[in-house]
Structures are given as structure tokens and as C-alpha cells.
Specification:
There is one protein chain. With 511 residues, the protein is α+β, with helices and mostly antiparallel strands. The chain folds into four domains: 65 residues; 129 residues, Up-down Bundle (f41 fragment of flagellin, N-terminal domain), CATH 1.20.1330; 105 residues, no CATH class; 111 residues, Sandwich (Immunoglobulin-like), CATH 2.60.40. The protein contains eight helices and 19 strands. Strand 1 and strand 2 form a beta hairpin. Helix 1 packs antiparallel against helix 7 and helix 2 packs antiparallel against helix 6. The longest helix has 54 residues. The chain starts with 7 loop residues before the first helix and ends with a helix. 34% of the residues are buried. Pfam families: Flagellin_C (PF00700), Flagellin_N (PF00669). Flagellin is the subunit protein which polymerizes to form the filaments of bacterial flagella. One of its GO terms (cellular component) is extracellular region. It comes from Szabonella alba.
Length: 511
């Protein structure tokens, strides 16, 4: 049946041509935009994923900028700390030269002052866009990544860089938690810090026959032997033996060691500042070894008598106690108070050395210091008083302060005297080590930042490639499809033309 109202063939040909034109328009859009998925209507799921990934790529661009800024900032700090290290080494050379007696210490001190001022100039100028990494103690966080979890949540990751304070400020003592129990003074008695030294008393028994006494006596690492009869004849008593023994000890001429006898008691005094003096005996006569000596400082003794303690007084710091940023400790004696406030990551060793530096910086006559560990591993600040003025030593501590600078004590370096030059040599070593550690830490941090920056660049490239795989058009395929669709379009037009001509045949029926 033919109809002039409904041309089914034309309708089919028209729908086919529309479909071809739609596909042709899509291919032309892919070719012009380069994307197979240019909008959500093309493929909603793929488009949504690609947009999330594109936002991540844009975020990583910002991260790359942050890392580059951070690397530049750390680079400035590293170069500044390396310069400070070199300047401190130059100061050490001056201090070493000042150890000699026949040098002009005044000129050396002037040179040290110039170098010290240069260090302060370097520290003050070591900033990048206002951020100085060698002043203060607050850590700095550098944005390093955006981490997307499987649930779609995003968290930022940071690279934390520790500031390395290379200033020389004294800090501020706090008023927080009391830390005094962490610092124990060896002798809290009044005037215990003096130059009298410590003594040991050896009491000889009245029951012994010293005419037969023979053996070896040792004090402070120096020994002497005595044969039978040298401590007295058969009729001599313990008082004579004590006097002879004291004389033999004095005759050794041991620095800081002296002896005296009162009756049967031999009193040995050691004025050694930082070194004990061991007292030992091997045999003293015909009786059983050691029985001729009844007591050392009131205690029963045998062959090894013991050790006379060093003259210096100690402040022992509890090895089990933590040291936090702002923990301050003070020692006082002779009307002077010395303070050190710890910074982040420091230990009791740093506290002891900081207090030593504070004391040495004052250049007090007759006062010398040492830092050492005791047999239990606790750090000790040793203070010796070689003046005629007796002093009382005390120590306290409080939390909540502001840390002293990493080069605390730099301002107090003085080589005007032999004692000050010796102290300066010890203290400068600690400053050099701190500057070296700062340089090394900055170097490690900068390397890590540069590695992360390189990774972020590669990760961005990988994300871009993944996005391109999902949404970019395959141009070879699009070109082939374009050619095919153009042919189909031409054929569709011809088919529609033929279909539209079919009603013309009906006219022939009415001629």
C-alpha cells in the first residue's frame, strides 16, 4: 500500500541520517577538542573521576611550589650554618694560639671579637622571605603531599624541619614546674666549696711490732716500698711509725698530696681539683696483712684502703629525668648565679655543659669547671674553688622558660688569662659541634625536600597520563571514523532523496 500521508521509507532514511549526523558531530567534536569525554554527558562516571584527578594535579602544582620555596629557605639556612662553622673554626685557631704564654692575647681577643660579630651578622641575615631557620626553636612544616584515601577523604602531609638556633642569647629562666630534685649537689654544707681539699686518716694499731713491718704503700698512683726496720726499731711504737710514714709520703713530692701525723694517726690530704687519690697498702709487717691498720676514716680496712675524693664539688643531674624545651637550671656560689635554659632535643649533658659555659664566661679567679659522667652514667658539673674564700654551692631548676641560644657562651669567650684560654678551648669545641650538627640537619632536610619535589613532579605526570587515558580521544580512530561517517552521510542523503521521490510515482496513476 502506498500513501501520500505517511512515507515510512523517508522516515527510516531520515532517522538514519540523523544518527549519522549525530555520530559525525561527536567525532568532529573529539577531533576539535582532542577529548573523548569532554563533559559529564559524554560519560558521567569517567568525567567525575577525571575531574577529581585534575583537582589533585592542580593541588600537586601548589605543593611543588611549596617544596621549592622550602628548599630555597633550607638552602639559605644550610649555607649560613656552614659559614658559622667556618667562623667558629677560625675562632678556635685564635684560642689555640692563645694557649701559649708568649703571645699578645689582647690582639687575639680583638680578632675573636671581630669573628664573633661576623657570626651574629650571618645569623641575622640568614632569612628567606622573612623566615630565618637559625633563630628560635619552633619547628617549620613544609607542605609535601595531599594523600587521598579510598573513601575520598584528603589529608595534607608535611615535612617538619627543626630550627637550629645559632644565636648566643642567654634565654629566660622560667617559673613553671620545679626541677630542683633533678640537680643534686655533692655537699650542701655551708662553705663546702673551698680549697682545703679532702683527707683520709689512717690509724695505726698499738699492738703491732713495726720493727718487722715491710711492704708497699701507694697514694695517688705513686708508690714506695719500706723494709723491716724502716718504720722504727723494736722498741718504737705506732706514733713513731705514723710520723715516719707521713714523712715518706711527703718526700714523694706528689702534686696536691700532703701528709701529717698526730699520734698514731696519719692524715693524707688531697687538693687535686678533678681527680681522686687512691690509697693502697700491700703488707705492713709480720702480722696478717692489714691488721696493723685499724681504720681509714673510721671504717675497718684491709689491703685496698679506698680513694680520697676530688676537691671539686659536683652537681649531678638525674639521668632518668627528661629535658624539655624551656627547662632551666641554675647554680649559685660566692654571690653569683649562673643559668642555662635547655632547648628542644637537648639532654642533661647539654644542661651541664651549658652551665659550665655560663660559669666560664664570667672569668672568675680561681674557679675552674669540668663536665664528666659518674660511674652510673649521670652527667656532672664539677666546680673547683682554688681561692681563700670559702663558698656554698646550690642548684635549682624550673620549667617554662625560653631556651638559650645554640651558641650560648660565645659572647663570654675570653683568652686574657691562661685559665680563661683553657676554658675557651673546651667551650668552643661544643659550639663547633652544634654548628656542624645544624649544617648536617639542614643538608638532610634539603635533600629530603628535593627528593619529594622530584617525586611530586613524577606523580603529577603519572596522573596527567592517567587522565589522558580516560578522556583523551584516539585521533587515529577518530580520523577513520570521520571518513566512514562522511561516506555514510552521503549515502544517507541519497537514501532520503530516493525515499522522498517515491510519492511522485503515485501521480502516474492519475494521468
Amino acid at each position: 500500500m502506498s500513501s501520500i500521508l505517511t512515507n515510512t521509507s523517508a522516515m527510516v532514511a531520515l532517522q538514519t541520517l540523523k544518527s549519522i549526523n549525530s555520530n559525525l558531530a561527536k567525532v568532529q567534536n573529539e577531533i576539535s577538542t582532542g577529548k573523548a569525554v569532554a563533559s559529564a554527558k559524554d560519560n558521567a562516571a569517567v568525567w567525575a573521576i577525571s575531574k577529581v584527578m585534575e583537582s589533585d594535579v592542580q593541588g600537586f602544582k601548589g605543593i611543588a611550589d611549596s617544596l621549592s620555596l622550602g628548599s630555597s629557605t633550607i638552602s639559605v639556612a644550610r649555607q649560613a650554618s656552614e659559614s658559622v662553622t667556618d667562623l667558629l673554626i677560625e675562632i678556635k685557631e685564635k684560642i689555640v694560639a692563645a694557649q701559649e704564654e708568649n703571645v699578645d692575647r689582647g690582639k687575639i681577643q680583638t680578632d675573636i671579637g671581630f669573628l664573633r660579630d661576623q657570626i651574629k651578622s650571618v645569623v641575622g641575615a640568614a632569612q628567606f622571605y622573612g623566615l630565618n631557620m637559625i633563630q628560635g626553636t619552633d619547628d617549620v612544616n613544609i607542605l609535601s603531599s595531599l594523600d587521598r584515601a579510598s573513601d575520598g577523604s584528603v589529608t595534607a602531609s608535611n615535612i617538619t624541619v627543626n630550627r637550629q638556633d645559632l644565636t648566643s642569647g642567654a634565654g629566660v629562666y622560667g617559673s613553671g614546674t620545679v626541677l630542683t630534685p633533678n640537680a643534686t649537689v655533692s655537699d650542701t654544707a655551708a662553705n663546702a666549696l673551698n680549697n682545703q681539699g679532702n683527707t683520709a686518716e689512717i690509724t695505726l694499731t698499738a699492738a703491732a711490732d713495726y720493727s718487722t713491718a715491710a711492704g708497699t704503700f701507694s697514694v695517688g698512683g705513686v708508690s714506695f716500698s719500706f723494709a723491716a726496720g724502716e718504720l722504727g726499731g723494736a722498741t718504737d711504737d705506732q706514733d713513731v711509725a705514723a710520723g715516719i710514714l707521713a714523712g715518706r709520703i711527703n718526700a714523694l713530692g706528689i702534686e696536691g698530696i700532703s701528709a701529717s701525723a698526730t699520734g698514731a694517726v696519719v692524715e693524707i690530704t688531697s687538693a687535686r681539683a678533678f681527680e681522686g687519690a687512691a690509697v693502697e697498702i700491700s703488707g705492713l709487717g709480720g702480722a696478717a696483712a692489714g691488721t696493723e691498720i685499724t681504720a681509714l676514716n673510721g671504717d675497718p680496712v684491709n689491703l685496698t684502703l679506698g680513694e680520697i675524693a676530688e676537691r671539686a664539688q659536683n652537681v649531678t643531674f638525674d639521668p632518668a629525668a627528661a629535658v624539655n624545651d624551656g627547662d632551666g637550671y641554675r647554680v649559685s656560689f660566692g654571690g653569683n648565679t649562673f643559668t642555662y635554659v635547655a632547648g628542644p632535643g637537648q639532654s642533661m649533658e647539654d644542661v651541664a655543659r651549658g652551665l659550665k659555659t655560663a660559669i666560664d664566661g664570667e672569668g672568675l679567679d680561681g674557679i675552674t669547671t669540668r663536665v664528666a659522667q659518674d660511674s652510673a652514667g649521670a652527667w656532672q658539673l664539677k666546680i673547683d674553688n682554688d681561692t681563700v674564700t670559702d663558698m656554698t654551692l646550690a642548684a635549682v631548676g624550673n620549667a617554662g622558660g625560653t631556651a638559650s641560644g645554640g651558641l650560648f657562651g660565645l659572647d663570654g669567650i675570653d683568652v686574657s688569662t691562661t685559665a680563661q684560654a683553657a676554658s675557651a678551648l673546651d667551650n668552643i669545641e661544643g659550639m663547633i659541634n652544634r654548628a656542624i650538627e645544624a649544617s648536617a640537619d639542614f643538608g638532610s632536610a634539603q635533600k629530603r625536600i628535593d627528593i619529594q619535589n622530584d617525586f611530586v613532579g613524577k606523580l603529577s605526570d603519572a596522573l596527567k597520563a592517567g587522565i589522558g587515558t580516560m578522556v583523551d580521544a584516539d585521533m587515529e580512530e577518530a580520523s577513520a571514523r570521520l571518513q566512514a561517517l562522511q561516506v555514510q552521510q552521503q549515502l544517507g542523503i541519497q537514501a532520503l532523496s530516493i525515499a522522498n521521490q517515491s510519492p511522485q510515482s503515485i501521480l502516474s496513476l492519475f494521468r
